[in-house]
Model the fold of this input.
Amino acid sequence: MTSFALHLVTSRWFMVFATLLIMSANGSGYMFGLYSNDIKSVLGYDQSTLNLISFFKDLGGNLAILSGLITEVSPPWMVLSIGAAMNFFGYFMIWMSITGHVVKPQVWQMCLYIWVGANSLSFPNTVALVTCGLIGLSGAILTQLYHAIYGDDSKSLVLLIAWLPASVSLLFLRTIRIMEGVRQPNELRVFFKFLYISLGVAGTLMAVIIMQNKLRFNRIEYGLSAFLVLTLLFLSLLVVVKEELKSWKLKKQAMKDHTQLGVITENPPSPEPELVSNENQAAVEVKPYSCCLNMFKAPNTGEDYTILQAAFSINMIILFIATTCGVGGALTTIDNLGQIGSSLGYPKHSIATFVSLMSIWNYLGRVLAGFGSEIFLTKYKLPRPWILTVVILLSSIGHLLVAFAIPNSLYFASIIIGFCLGAQLSLSVTIISELFGLKYYATLYNVIALSSPLGSYIFNVRVAGRLYDKEAMKQIEALGLVREAGKELTCNGGRCYRTAFLVITAVTLFGSLVSFLLVLRTRGFYKTDIYKRFREEQAMAETEITSNGATGNRTTTKMENDNASVSAAPETQPPTKKDSQIK
Done:
Protein backbone atom coordinates (compact mmCIF):
# COMPACT_ATOMS: atom_id res chain seq x y z
CA MET A 1 0.00 0.00 0.00
CA THR A 2 2.92 2.30 0.72
CA SER A 3 4.30 1.75 -2.77
CA PHE A 4 0.93 2.66 -4.30
CA ALA A 5 0.72 5.83 -2.21
CA LEU A 6 4.16 6.84 -3.48
CA HIS A 7 3.11 6.00 -7.03
CA LEU A 8 -0.07 8.07 -6.59
CA VAL A 9 1.51 11.30 -5.32
CA THR A 10 4.18 11.20 -8.04
CA SER A 11 1.77 10.39 -10.88
CA ARG A 12 0.66 12.51 -13.81
CA TRP A 13 -3.01 12.48 -12.86
CA PHE A 14 -2.26 13.60 -9.30
CA MET A 15 -0.38 16.52 -10.80
CA VAL A 16 -3.51 17.39 -12.79
CA PHE A 17 -5.53 17.24 -9.56
CA ALA A 18 -3.01 19.59 -7.94
CA THR A 19 -3.37 22.08 -10.78
CA LEU A 20 -7.15 22.01 -10.36
CA LEU A 21 -6.83 22.92 -6.68
CA ILE A 22 -4.32 25.67 -7.45
CA MET A 23 -6.64 27.17 -10.06
CA SER A 24 -9.65 26.93 -7.73
CA ALA A 25 -7.83 29.13 -5.19
CA ASN A 26 -6.63 31.79 -7.64
CA GLY A 27 -9.82 33.79 -8.23
CA SER A 28 -8.86 36.95 -6.35
CA GLY A 29 -9.09 39.02 -9.52
CA TYR A 30 -12.88 38.64 -9.53
CA MET A 31 -13.34 39.57 -5.84
CA PHE A 32 -12.30 43.22 -5.88
CA GLY A 33 -15.91 44.33 -5.48
CA LEU A 34 -16.12 42.64 -2.07
CA TYR A 35 -13.37 44.68 -0.43
CA SER A 36 -13.16 47.79 -2.63
CA ASN A 37 -15.52 49.74 -0.35
CA ASP A 38 -13.10 49.13 2.54
CA ILE A 39 -10.20 50.56 0.55
CA LYS A 40 -12.29 53.55 -0.47
CA SER A 41 -13.69 54.36 3.00
CA VAL A 42 -10.57 53.72 5.10
CA LEU A 43 -8.13 55.48 2.78
CA GLY A 44 -10.55 58.27 1.77
CA TYR A 45 -10.42 57.82 -2.00
CA ASP A 46 -12.73 59.09 -4.67
CA GLN A 47 -13.97 56.67 -7.34
CA SER A 48 -11.39 57.69 -9.92
CA THR A 49 -8.56 56.82 -7.54
CA LEU A 50 -10.18 53.53 -6.58
CA ASN A 51 -10.67 52.65 -10.24
CA LEU A 52 -7.02 53.51 -10.92
CA ILE A 53 -6.07 50.91 -8.31
CA SER A 54 -8.40 48.36 -9.90
CA PHE A 55 -6.79 49.11 -13.28
CA PHE A 56 -3.41 48.09 -11.88
CA LYS A 57 -5.09 44.90 -10.66
CA ASP A 58 -6.26 44.19 -14.20
CA LEU A 59 -2.85 45.11 -15.60
CA GLY A 60 -1.07 42.77 -13.22
CA GLY A 61 -3.52 39.95 -13.86
CA ASN A 62 -3.04 40.11 -17.64
CA LEU A 63 0.67 40.94 -17.95
CA ALA A 64 2.45 37.60 -17.82
CA ILE A 65 5.80 38.67 -19.27
CA LEU A 66 7.68 38.38 -15.96
CA SER A 67 6.36 34.91 -15.17
CA GLY A 68 7.06 33.78 -18.73
CA LEU A 69 10.68 34.91 -18.60
CA ILE A 70 11.24 33.29 -15.21
CA THR A 71 9.64 30.05 -16.42
CA GLU A 72 12.16 29.90 -19.28
CA VAL A 73 15.13 29.74 -16.90
CA SER A 74 13.66 28.25 -13.69
CA PRO A 75 12.04 24.96 -12.66
CA PRO A 76 8.29 24.92 -11.88
CA TRP A 77 8.81 24.81 -8.11
CA MET A 78 10.76 28.06 -8.28
CA VAL A 79 8.05 29.72 -10.38
CA LEU A 80 5.35 28.64 -7.91
CA SER A 81 7.44 29.85 -4.96
CA ILE A 82 7.93 33.29 -6.49
CA GLY A 83 4.22 33.53 -7.29
CA ALA A 84 3.26 32.55 -3.74
CA ALA A 85 5.64 35.13 -2.24
CA MET A 86 4.30 37.87 -4.51
CA ASN A 87 0.69 36.95 -3.75
CA PHE A 88 1.23 37.03 0.00
CA PHE A 89 3.24 40.26 -0.05
CA GLY A 90 0.82 42.18 -2.28
CA TYR A 91 -2.44 41.34 -0.55
CA PHE A 92 -0.95 41.23 2.95
CA MET A 93 0.25 44.82 2.52
CA ILE A 94 -3.24 45.82 1.33
CA TRP A 95 -4.72 44.17 4.42
CA MET A 96 -2.19 45.94 6.65
CA SER A 97 -3.14 49.25 5.00
CA ILE A 98 -6.92 48.97 5.40
CA THR A 99 -6.70 47.67 8.98
CA GLY A 100 -4.43 50.51 10.14
CA HIS A 101 -1.39 48.37 10.96
CA VAL A 102 0.82 50.59 8.81
CA VAL A 103 0.88 54.30 8.01
CA LYS A 104 -1.62 55.31 5.33
CA PRO A 105 0.11 54.44 2.04
CA GLN A 106 0.39 56.69 -0.97
CA VAL A 107 -1.77 55.92 -3.99
CA TRP A 108 1.22 54.67 -5.97
CA GLN A 109 2.02 52.23 -3.16
CA MET A 110 -1.48 50.79 -3.23
CA CYS A 111 -1.21 50.47 -7.01
CA LEU A 112 2.08 48.65 -6.57
CA TYR A 113 0.71 46.31 -3.89
CA ILE A 114 -2.29 45.25 -5.92
CA TRP A 115 -0.22 44.92 -9.11
CA VAL A 116 2.21 42.59 -7.33
CA GLY A 117 -0.65 40.56 -5.84
CA ALA A 118 -2.55 40.30 -9.11
CA ASN A 119 0.55 39.58 -11.18
CA SER A 120 1.35 36.66 -8.88
CA LEU A 121 -1.59 34.79 -10.43
CA SER A 122 0.27 34.60 -13.74
CA PHE A 123 2.95 32.40 -12.14
CA PRO A 124 0.73 29.38 -11.33
CA ASN A 125 -1.19 30.05 -14.52
CA THR A 126 2.02 29.69 -16.51
CA VAL A 127 3.15 26.37 -15.02
CA ALA A 128 -0.08 24.79 -13.78
CA LEU A 129 -2.94 25.91 -16.02
CA VAL A 130 -5.36 23.25 -17.26
CA THR A 131 -8.32 23.94 -19.51
CA CYS A 132 -11.17 23.06 -17.16
CA GLY A 133 -12.15 26.66 -16.43
CA LEU A 134 -11.77 26.53 -12.64
CA ILE A 135 -9.89 29.83 -12.70
CA GLY A 136 -13.24 31.40 -13.59
CA LEU A 137 -15.14 29.47 -10.91
CA SER A 138 -12.66 30.16 -8.12
CA GLY A 139 -14.18 33.51 -7.16
CA ALA A 140 -17.40 31.81 -6.03
CA ILE A 141 -15.44 29.09 -4.21
CA LEU A 142 -13.35 31.64 -2.31
CA THR A 143 -16.49 33.60 -1.40
CA GLN A 144 -17.94 30.55 0.36
CA LEU A 145 -14.69 29.93 2.21
CA TYR A 146 -14.49 33.60 3.20
CA HIS A 147 -17.97 33.57 4.77
CA ALA A 148 -17.26 30.26 6.51
CA ILE A 149 -13.97 31.45 8.05
CA TYR A 150 -14.46 35.18 8.60
CA GLY A 151 -18.22 35.75 8.39
CA ASP A 152 -18.99 39.17 6.89
CA ASP A 153 -15.66 40.80 7.76
CA SER A 154 -14.68 42.00 4.29
CA LYS A 155 -11.32 43.31 5.50
CA SER A 156 -10.35 39.79 6.55
CA LEU A 157 -11.21 38.65 3.02
CA VAL A 158 -8.05 40.40 1.84
CA LEU A 159 -6.08 38.40 4.41
CA LEU A 160 -7.67 35.18 3.11
CA ILE A 161 -6.68 36.11 -0.44
CA ALA A 162 -3.14 36.69 0.84
CA TRP A 163 -2.52 33.36 2.58
CA LEU A 164 -4.81 30.78 0.95
CA PRO A 165 -3.63 30.84 -2.71
CA ALA A 166 0.00 31.03 -1.54
CA SER A 167 -0.50 28.06 0.81
CA VAL A 168 -2.07 25.89 -1.88
CA SER A 169 0.77 26.63 -4.30
CA LEU A 170 3.39 25.82 -1.66
CA LEU A 171 1.57 22.62 -0.70
CA PHE A 172 2.00 21.24 -4.22
CA LEU A 173 5.44 22.73 -4.77
CA ARG A 174 7.08 19.39 -5.56
CA THR A 175 4.04 17.95 -7.33
CA ILE A 176 4.02 20.39 -10.25
CA ARG A 177 6.98 19.44 -12.41
CA ILE A 178 7.96 18.63 -15.95
CA MET A 179 7.18 14.99 -16.71
CA GLU A 180 7.95 12.94 -19.77
CA GLY A 181 5.32 10.37 -20.55
CA VAL A 182 3.25 8.85 -23.29
CA ARG A 183 -0.25 10.00 -24.01
CA GLN A 184 -2.83 7.56 -22.67
CA PRO A 185 -5.71 6.33 -24.86
CA ASN A 186 -8.33 7.34 -22.26
CA GLU A 187 -6.79 10.74 -21.55
CA LEU A 188 -9.60 12.82 -23.05
CA ARG A 189 -12.24 10.75 -21.25
CA VAL A 190 -10.56 11.41 -17.90
CA PHE A 191 -10.45 15.14 -18.59
CA PHE A 192 -14.16 15.01 -19.33
CA LYS A 193 -14.69 13.48 -15.89
CA PHE A 194 -12.87 16.45 -14.37
CA LEU A 195 -15.07 18.74 -16.45
CA TYR A 196 -18.27 17.04 -15.25
CA ILE A 197 -17.14 17.41 -11.65
CA SER A 198 -16.44 21.11 -12.16
CA LEU A 199 -19.90 21.50 -13.71
CA GLY A 200 -21.33 19.81 -10.62
CA VAL A 201 -19.45 22.27 -8.42
CA ALA A 202 -20.84 25.17 -10.48
CA GLY A 203 -24.40 23.84 -10.21
CA THR A 204 -24.06 23.32 -6.47
CA LEU A 205 -22.67 26.82 -5.98
CA MET A 206 -25.57 28.24 -7.96
CA ALA A 207 -28.11 26.40 -5.79
CA VAL A 208 -26.31 27.42 -2.59
CA ILE A 209 -26.21 31.08 -3.65
CA ILE A 210 -29.94 31.09 -4.35
CA MET A 211 -30.59 29.62 -0.89
CA GLN A 212 -28.25 32.13 0.75
CA ASN A 213 -30.04 34.98 -0.97
CA LYS A 214 -33.43 33.72 0.20
CA LEU A 215 -32.28 32.82 3.71
CA ARG A 216 -29.66 34.61 5.78
CA PHE A 217 -26.95 32.05 6.58
CA ASN A 218 -24.94 32.13 9.82
CA ARG A 219 -21.29 31.08 10.17
CA ILE A 220 -22.14 27.42 10.76
CA GLU A 221 -24.40 27.23 7.71
CA TYR A 222 -21.75 28.93 5.58
CA GLY A 223 -19.30 26.37 6.91
CA LEU A 224 -21.56 23.51 5.81
CA SER A 225 -22.00 24.99 2.33
CA ALA A 226 -18.23 25.47 2.00
CA PHE A 227 -17.67 21.86 3.13
CA LEU A 228 -20.13 20.65 0.49
CA VAL A 229 -18.35 22.59 -2.26
CA LEU A 230 -14.94 21.30 -1.17
CA THR A 231 -16.25 17.74 -1.02
CA LEU A 232 -17.44 17.96 -4.61
CA LEU A 233 -14.15 19.55 -5.64
CA PHE A 234 -12.20 16.67 -4.07
CA LEU A 235 -14.19 14.12 -6.06
CA SER A 236 -11.50 14.70 -8.68
CA LEU A 237 -9.13 12.87 -6.33
CA LEU A 238 -11.28 9.73 -6.63
CA VAL A 239 -10.90 9.89 -10.40
CA VAL A 240 -7.14 10.17 -9.95
CA VAL A 241 -7.00 7.21 -7.55
CA LYS A 242 -9.05 5.05 -9.91
CA GLU A 243 -6.89 5.83 -12.94
CA GLU A 244 -3.60 5.46 -11.12
CA LEU A 245 -4.71 2.20 -9.51
CA LYS A 246 -5.21 0.77 -13.00
CA SER A 247 -1.81 2.08 -14.05
CA TRP A 248 -0.13 0.66 -10.95
CA LYS A 249 -1.60 -2.80 -11.47
CA LEU A 250 -0.53 -2.83 -15.12
CA LYS A 251 2.94 -1.72 -14.11
CA LYS A 252 3.26 -4.49 -11.54
CA GLN A 253 1.99 -7.08 -14.04
CA ALA A 254 4.47 -5.86 -16.65
CA MET A 255 7.34 -6.15 -14.17
CA LYS A 256 6.23 -9.67 -13.24
CA ASP A 257 6.05 -10.74 -16.88
CA HIS A 258 9.40 -9.11 -17.60
CA THR A 259 11.19 -11.32 -15.10
CA GLN A 260 9.94 -14.45 -16.93
CA LEU A 261 11.21 -13.38 -20.35
CA GLY A 262 14.69 -13.48 -21.78
CA VAL A 263 15.89 -10.24 -23.27
CA ILE A 264 17.97 -10.05 -26.44
CA THR A 265 19.28 -6.69 -27.61
CA GLU A 266 20.04 -6.14 -31.25
CA ASN A 267 22.18 -3.25 -32.40
CA PRO A 268 21.79 -2.89 -36.13
CA PRO A 269 24.67 -1.27 -37.93
CA SER A 270 24.46 2.48 -37.99
CA PRO A 271 23.67 3.84 -41.42
CA GLU A 272 26.56 5.58 -43.07
CA PRO A 273 26.11 9.35 -43.28
CA GLU A 274 25.05 10.50 -46.67
CA LEU A 275 27.53 12.63 -48.51
CA VAL A 276 26.08 15.82 -49.86
CA SER A 277 27.70 17.21 -52.97
CA ASN A 278 28.60 20.83 -53.23
CA GLU A 279 25.92 21.35 -55.85
CA ASN A 280 23.19 19.85 -53.64
CA GLN A 281 24.46 21.76 -50.64
CA ALA A 282 24.21 24.98 -52.54
CA ALA A 283 20.72 24.07 -53.67
CA VAL A 284 19.42 23.64 -50.12
CA GLU A 285 20.97 26.81 -48.77
CA VAL A 286 18.32 29.21 -47.51
CA LYS A 287 18.55 32.92 -47.89
CA PRO A 288 18.85 34.93 -44.68
CA TYR A 289 15.45 35.61 -43.16
CA SER A 290 14.49 39.08 -42.02
CA CYS A 291 11.41 39.43 -39.83
CA CYS A 292 11.20 43.16 -40.54
CA LEU A 293 11.19 42.69 -44.32
CA ASN A 294 8.52 40.00 -44.13
CA MET A 295 6.23 41.40 -41.46
CA PHE A 296 3.85 42.81 -44.08
CA LYS A 297 4.03 39.65 -46.23
CA ALA A 298 1.61 37.57 -44.22
CA PRO A 299 1.05 33.90 -45.08
CA ASN A 300 -2.36 32.44 -45.78
CA THR A 301 -4.91 32.53 -42.98
CA GLY A 302 -4.43 29.58 -40.66
CA GLU A 303 -0.73 29.14 -41.33
CA ASP A 304 1.96 30.02 -38.83
CA TYR A 305 2.47 33.79 -38.66
CA THR A 306 5.51 35.40 -37.12
CA ILE A 307 4.91 37.69 -34.17
CA LEU A 308 5.28 40.86 -36.23
CA GLN A 309 3.18 39.50 -39.10
CA ALA A 310 0.35 38.73 -36.69
CA ALA A 311 0.68 41.98 -34.74
CA PHE A 312 0.42 44.12 -37.90
CA SER A 313 -2.25 42.02 -39.62
CA ILE A 314 -5.70 43.52 -40.13
CA ASN A 315 -7.37 40.50 -38.54
CA MET A 316 -5.36 40.90 -35.31
CA ILE A 317 -6.10 44.64 -35.16
CA ILE A 318 -9.82 43.97 -35.63
CA LEU A 319 -9.81 41.26 -32.97
CA PHE A 320 -7.86 43.48 -30.56
CA ILE A 321 -10.31 46.39 -30.94
CA ALA A 322 -13.36 44.14 -30.58
CA THR A 323 -11.92 42.49 -27.46
CA THR A 324 -10.98 45.85 -25.94
CA CYS A 325 -14.55 47.09 -26.37
CA GLY A 326 -16.15 43.89 -25.10
CA VAL A 327 -13.86 42.85 -22.24
CA GLY A 328 -13.18 46.42 -21.09
CA GLY A 329 -16.84 47.02 -20.27
CA ALA A 330 -17.13 43.69 -18.44
CA LEU A 331 -14.06 44.40 -16.30
CA THR A 332 -15.50 47.81 -15.45
CA THR A 333 -18.61 46.11 -14.10
CA ILE A 334 -16.56 43.62 -12.05
CA ASP A 335 -14.32 46.31 -10.55
CA ASN A 336 -17.26 48.59 -9.68
CA LEU A 337 -19.68 45.95 -8.36
CA GLY A 338 -19.21 47.10 -4.78
CA GLN A 339 -20.02 50.74 -5.54
CA ILE A 340 -22.79 49.89 -8.01
CA GLY A 341 -24.53 47.76 -5.38
CA SER A 342 -24.04 50.35 -2.65
CA SER A 343 -25.31 53.24 -4.78
CA LEU A 344 -28.46 51.29 -5.65
CA GLY A 345 -29.13 50.32 -2.02
CA TYR A 346 -28.35 46.60 -2.19
CA PRO A 347 -27.30 45.03 1.15
CA LYS A 348 -23.75 43.80 1.68
CA HIS A 349 -24.59 40.11 1.29
CA SER A 350 -26.17 40.85 -2.10
CA ILE A 351 -22.87 42.25 -3.34
CA ALA A 352 -21.25 38.92 -2.42
CA THR A 353 -24.01 37.25 -4.43
CA PHE A 354 -23.21 39.42 -7.46
CA VAL A 355 -19.52 38.48 -7.24
CA SER A 356 -20.36 34.77 -6.99
CA LEU A 357 -22.83 34.92 -9.89
CA MET A 358 -20.26 36.73 -12.01
CA SER A 359 -17.67 34.05 -11.21
CA ILE A 360 -19.95 31.05 -11.85
CA TRP A 361 -21.26 32.34 -15.15
CA ASN A 362 -17.77 33.39 -16.19
CA TYR A 363 -16.83 29.72 -15.87
CA LEU A 364 -19.95 28.57 -17.74
CA GLY A 365 -19.25 31.09 -20.48
CA ARG A 366 -15.77 29.62 -21.00
CA VAL A 367 -17.08 26.06 -21.19
CA LEU A 368 -20.22 26.65 -23.27
CA ALA A 369 -18.48 28.98 -25.71
CA GLY A 370 -15.84 26.34 -26.36
CA PHE A 371 -18.29 23.50 -26.93
CA GLY A 372 -20.98 25.58 -28.62
CA SER A 373 -18.70 27.30 -31.11
CA GLU A 374 -17.11 23.96 -31.99
CA ILE A 375 -20.52 22.41 -32.71
CA PHE A 376 -21.58 25.32 -34.88
CA LEU A 377 -18.24 25.26 -36.68
CA THR A 378 -18.08 21.53 -37.43
CA LYS A 379 -21.76 20.99 -38.25
CA TYR A 380 -22.78 24.28 -39.87
CA LYS A 381 -19.42 25.86 -40.84
CA LEU A 382 -20.38 28.94 -38.82
CA PRO A 383 -17.27 31.08 -38.27
CA ARG A 384 -16.14 31.29 -34.67
CA PRO A 385 -15.99 35.13 -34.89
CA TRP A 386 -19.77 34.96 -35.47
CA ILE A 387 -20.18 33.57 -31.95
CA LEU A 388 -17.83 36.25 -30.62
CA THR A 389 -19.94 38.96 -32.30
CA VAL A 390 -23.14 37.63 -30.75
CA VAL A 391 -21.53 37.38 -27.31
CA ILE A 392 -20.28 40.99 -27.43
CA LEU A 393 -23.73 42.11 -28.56
CA LEU A 394 -25.33 40.17 -25.71
CA SER A 395 -23.10 41.85 -23.13
CA SER A 396 -24.57 45.23 -24.07
CA ILE A 397 -27.88 44.05 -22.60
CA GLY A 398 -26.14 43.54 -19.25
CA HIS A 399 -24.67 47.04 -19.40
CA LEU A 400 -28.11 48.51 -20.11
CA LEU A 401 -29.50 46.73 -17.04
CA VAL A 402 -26.82 48.44 -14.94
CA ALA A 403 -27.43 51.81 -16.59
CA PHE A 404 -31.19 51.94 -15.98
CA ALA A 405 -31.01 50.36 -12.50
CA ILE A 406 -34.25 48.39 -12.73
CA PRO A 407 -35.06 46.76 -9.36
CA ASN A 408 -33.16 43.47 -8.94
CA SER A 409 -31.67 43.93 -12.42
CA LEU A 410 -28.13 43.66 -11.05
CA TYR A 411 -28.63 39.92 -10.47
CA PHE A 412 -29.38 39.39 -14.16
CA ALA A 413 -26.66 41.84 -15.22
CA SER A 414 -24.09 39.85 -13.20
CA ILE A 415 -25.13 36.63 -14.95
CA ILE A 416 -25.10 38.12 -18.46
CA ILE A 417 -21.85 40.06 -18.10
CA GLY A 418 -20.08 37.19 -16.32
CA PHE A 419 -21.12 34.73 -19.03
CA CYS A 420 -20.09 37.07 -21.84
CA LEU A 421 -16.72 37.82 -20.26
CA GLY A 422 -15.86 34.13 -19.96
CA ALA A 423 -17.08 33.43 -23.49
CA GLN A 424 -15.06 36.31 -24.98
CA LEU A 425 -11.87 35.18 -23.26
CA SER A 426 -12.37 31.63 -24.46
CA LEU A 427 -13.27 32.54 -28.04
CA SER A 428 -10.57 35.17 -28.58
CA VAL A 429 -7.67 32.88 -27.69
CA THR A 430 -9.12 30.07 -29.83
CA ILE A 431 -9.55 32.40 -32.81
CA ILE A 432 -5.90 33.46 -32.45
CA SER A 433 -4.71 29.86 -32.69
CA GLU A 434 -6.88 29.22 -35.75
CA LEU A 435 -6.06 32.37 -37.71
CA PHE A 436 -2.37 32.78 -36.86
CA GLY A 437 -1.17 29.25 -36.12
CA LEU A 438 0.36 27.72 -33.01
CA LYS A 439 4.06 28.45 -33.54
CA TYR A 440 4.00 31.73 -31.58
CA TYR A 441 0.70 31.15 -29.85
CA ALA A 442 1.97 31.94 -26.32
CA THR A 443 3.25 35.37 -27.37
CA LEU A 444 0.18 36.20 -29.45
CA TYR A 445 -2.01 35.16 -26.52
CA ASN A 446 -0.30 37.78 -24.37
CA VAL A 447 -0.71 40.36 -27.14
CA ILE A 448 -4.49 39.93 -27.14
CA ALA A 449 -4.48 39.80 -23.32
CA LEU A 450 -3.28 43.43 -23.26
CA SER A 451 -6.70 44.44 -24.58
CA SER A 452 -8.18 43.72 -21.14
CA PRO A 453 -6.19 46.28 -19.11
CA LEU A 454 -6.41 48.78 -21.97
CA GLY A 455 -10.21 48.51 -21.96
CA SER A 456 -10.21 48.67 -18.17
CA TYR A 457 -8.24 51.93 -18.17
CA ILE A 458 -10.45 53.57 -20.80
CA PHE A 459 -13.86 52.58 -19.43
CA ASN A 460 -13.06 52.07 -15.75
CA VAL A 461 -10.72 54.97 -14.96
CA ARG A 462 -11.43 57.55 -17.64
CA VAL A 463 -15.19 57.00 -18.01
CA ALA A 464 -16.86 55.32 -15.02
CA GLY A 465 -14.63 56.78 -12.31
CA ARG A 466 -14.79 60.38 -13.54
CA LEU A 467 -18.52 60.39 -14.24
CA TYR A 468 -19.23 58.81 -10.82
CA ASP A 469 -17.19 61.49 -9.05
CA LYS A 470 -18.86 64.21 -11.10
CA GLU A 471 -22.31 63.02 -10.03
CA ALA A 472 -21.17 62.63 -6.41
CA MET A 473 -19.91 66.24 -6.34
CA LYS A 474 -23.27 67.41 -7.72
CA GLN A 475 -25.04 65.65 -4.86
CA ILE A 476 -22.73 67.21 -2.27
CA GLU A 477 -23.16 70.69 -3.74
CA ALA A 478 -26.96 70.23 -3.86
CA LEU A 479 -26.87 69.61 -0.10
CA GLY A 480 -24.77 72.72 0.44
CA LEU A 481 -21.82 70.68 1.71
CA VAL A 482 -18.12 70.69 0.90
CA ARG A 483 -16.08 67.53 0.61
CA GLU A 484 -13.57 67.25 3.41
CA ALA A 485 -9.99 66.38 2.55
CA GLY A 486 -9.20 62.70 3.11
CA LYS A 487 -12.84 61.64 3.11
CA GLU A 488 -14.28 59.21 0.59
CA LEU A 489 -16.48 60.52 -2.20
CA THR A 490 -19.76 58.60 -2.31
CA CYS A 491 -22.65 58.78 -4.74
CA ASN A 492 -26.16 57.41 -4.23
CA GLY A 493 -28.88 56.59 -6.73
CA GLY A 494 -29.26 55.28 -10.23
CA ARG A 495 -27.66 58.31 -11.86
CA CYS A 496 -24.20 57.48 -10.45
CA TYR A 497 -23.38 55.00 -13.20
CA ARG A 498 -26.13 55.69 -15.76
CA THR A 499 -24.15 57.89 -18.12
CA ALA A 500 -21.02 55.76 -17.81
CA PHE A 501 -22.77 52.53 -18.72
CA LEU A 502 -24.68 54.14 -21.55
CA VAL A 503 -21.29 55.09 -22.99
CA ILE A 504 -20.02 51.55 -22.36
CA THR A 505 -23.10 50.13 -24.07
CA ALA A 506 -22.51 52.27 -27.15
CA VAL A 507 -18.84 51.25 -27.31
CA THR A 508 -19.80 47.58 -26.86
CA LEU A 509 -22.20 47.82 -29.80
CA PHE A 510 -19.36 49.34 -31.80
CA GLY A 511 -17.18 46.41 -30.74
CA SER A 512 -19.75 43.94 -32.05
CA LEU A 513 -19.73 45.75 -35.43
CA VAL A 514 -15.94 45.56 -35.53
CA SER A 515 -16.12 41.86 -34.69
CA PHE A 516 -18.57 41.40 -37.57
CA LEU A 517 -15.87 42.69 -39.93
CA LEU A 518 -13.74 39.76 -38.80
CA VAL A 519 -16.63 37.44 -39.67
CA LEU A 520 -16.72 38.81 -43.21
CA ARG A 521 -12.96 38.53 -43.60
CA THR A 522 -12.70 34.94 -42.33
CA ARG A 523 -15.91 33.28 -43.51
CA GLY A 524 -14.12 31.75 -46.50
CA PHE A 525 -11.43 30.30 -44.25
CA TYR A 526 -13.93 28.74 -41.86
CA LYS A 527 -15.79 27.07 -44.73
CA THR A 528 -12.68 25.00 -45.38
CA ASP A 529 -11.42 22.11 -43.27
CA ILE A 530 -9.41 24.15 -40.78
CA TYR A 531 -8.21 21.02 -38.97
CA LYS A 532 -6.74 19.38 -42.09
CA ARG A 533 -3.26 20.80 -41.51
CA PHE A 534 -3.21 19.59 -37.92
CA ARG A 535 -4.25 16.07 -38.95
CA GLU A 536 -1.49 16.03 -41.57
CA GLU A 537 1.08 17.16 -39.02
CA GLN A 538 -0.14 14.45 -36.64
CA ALA A 539 0.16 11.80 -39.34
CA MET A 540 3.68 12.98 -40.20
CA ALA A 541 4.67 12.86 -36.54
CA GLU A 542 3.34 9.30 -36.21
CA THR A 543 5.19 8.27 -39.39
CA GLU A 544 8.41 9.77 -38.03
CA ILE A 545 7.98 7.95 -34.72
CA THR A 546 7.40 4.67 -36.56
CA SER A 547 10.41 5.14 -38.85
CA ASN A 548 12.67 6.09 -35.95
CA GLY A 549 11.54 3.01 -34.08
CA ALA A 550 12.36 0.83 -37.10
CA THR A 551 15.90 2.17 -37.57
CA GLY A 552 16.90 2.58 -33.91
CA ASN A 553 17.99 0.03 -31.33
CA ARG A 554 15.41 -2.64 -30.75
CA THR A 555 14.76 -4.80 -27.71
CA THR A 556 13.31 -8.17 -28.60
CA THR A 557 11.74 -10.67 -26.22
CA LYS A 558 10.79 -14.27 -26.77
CA MET A 559 7.15 -13.24 -26.61
CA GLU A 560 7.75 -10.64 -29.33
CA ASN A 561 9.34 -13.27 -31.57
CA ASP A 562 6.28 -15.46 -31.15
CA ASN A 563 3.99 -12.57 -32.10
CA ALA A 564 6.06 -10.79 -34.70
CA SER A 565 3.13 -10.50 -37.03
CA VAL A 566 1.10 -8.43 -34.56
CA SER A 567 1.66 -4.67 -34.74
CA ALA A 568 0.22 -1.87 -32.65
CA ALA A 569 -0.19 1.85 -33.21
CA PRO A 570 2.13 4.08 -31.16
CA GLU A 571 0.62 5.28 -27.91
CA THR A 572 2.27 8.67 -28.12
CA GLN A 573 0.14 11.00 -30.21
CA PRO A 574 0.56 14.75 -30.47
CA PRO A 575 -2.52 16.62 -29.27
CA THR A 576 -4.84 17.60 -32.06
CA LYS A 577 -6.44 21.00 -32.43
CA LYS A 578 -9.85 19.51 -31.85
CA ASP A 579 -8.81 18.11 -28.47
CA SER A 580 -8.06 21.60 -27.13
CA GLN A 581 -11.49 23.15 -27.49
CA ILE A 582 -12.47 22.84 -23.80
CA LYS A 583 -11.79 26.22 -22.28
